[in-house]
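User: Structure tokens for this complex, please. No commentary.
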Amino acid sequence: MELVAIGCSTGGLQALQTLLGGLAPCPRTAFVAVLHTASASVDLLCQLLARESPMPVMEAEERMPVRPGVLQLAPPGYHLLIGRDRHFALTVDPKVCFVRPSIDVLFESAADAYRANMAGVILTGANEDGALGLCCVRRHGGAALVQDPEEAESPAMPRAALATAGADHCLPLAAIAIELNRMCLS
Amino acid sequence: METDLDEIELDLFIEAMRRRHGYDLGQYARASLKRRVQGLVRQHGLDHIGALTARVLRDTAFLPQVVEGLSVPVSEMFRDPFVFSALRTQVFPTLASYPSINIWQAGCAHGEEVYSLAILLEEAGLYERCQIYATDFSDAALARAREGIFPAREARAASLRYQQAGGGMTLADYYHARYDLVKLDAALRRNVVFANHNLATDGVFCEAHLILCRNVLIYFNNALQNRALALFADSLVRGGFLCLGTKENLSTAPVAGNFAAVDRAARIFRAMRPT
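Assistant:
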């Protein structure tokens, strides 16, 4: 597993913290997340997540390589894409699903680059962003994991993902962490 | 398999645009270019990139729509207000020492930033001395920029950003609202020249004291980014200022050594003499 791409929205900070708390260090796998947030400070988010994370957490920067063993976050106000050269690109293209960064945009580009060597993870959220992106991940052979809507603080996003894309695993956060550990360390 | 076909089709589209129309898209950041091209395919109800290529080869009237779709300029007035505040406090005082001031807004999109800058220059008492060149490679974008008409629904947020940038009036003093549109005061563009300029192919055309190029280089690959930055370095007077987008990185570029950071967060740099 080369890449785990994660998308979350309402309630996402807490959900990500819980998920990270259950992860083992995965030195060969890169983690990249889009978290819809009103905060303009990606530094603050990195600090809040780093407390719970087994790996360093930093901002994804344009033109820089996707780094294994690190969680990199999309900066607010920009779409984050990953190219086939496994480097990040940013755009200020129009919002998708009323948001920028959009999970769909990250997942679609990542699916094109990593194909079967990635997992897409959709967590709590109040909109439908990520559903089409997760379809794309599955179509290219990647794994799809969705947080159990029953557990999610805001179930709309996992529900939309399940309805549109389906999933290989629909689980609570603690079980998603176990599944990711299995995928990344096997 | 389908994915590889996409890549071949994208290469052929790039080749068609270069050989048929002289646009060098090969130097654009591949991931974002591909997304925009796929967006064009969907927008025009085509099945795949190959169909877009066929149309762009044969239908010359179609080209402006393609160019517009590929440039998709998205900005807003006073985007990142702290940057405009930094320009006001850290750049304007130096500009004020010149009898005449040349400013180049490279990649001006629909003109949001040109008008924003013009307002602050006006308020600082510098506008009369300024010649502003607003350039873009899309004629459609330039036509929009010349009009200075924006959706009224954006005006409230823009007013707030204008205040945060340190604006001295209210933004409404500079526009007329009508239905769901606002039209900016035409006087704001009396010293602005809108012109077509392509950072991929065109050269130096002025000696600038300030160049703004925000969220344009993110769409370029390293080679084209380096070309544009070298062009900026050649266009700036010694001690001239360069302002990039807040997430753009100068650090990997060969000309990085020609620039010193004035305000790192606002991505404002100053041209030094090459050492």
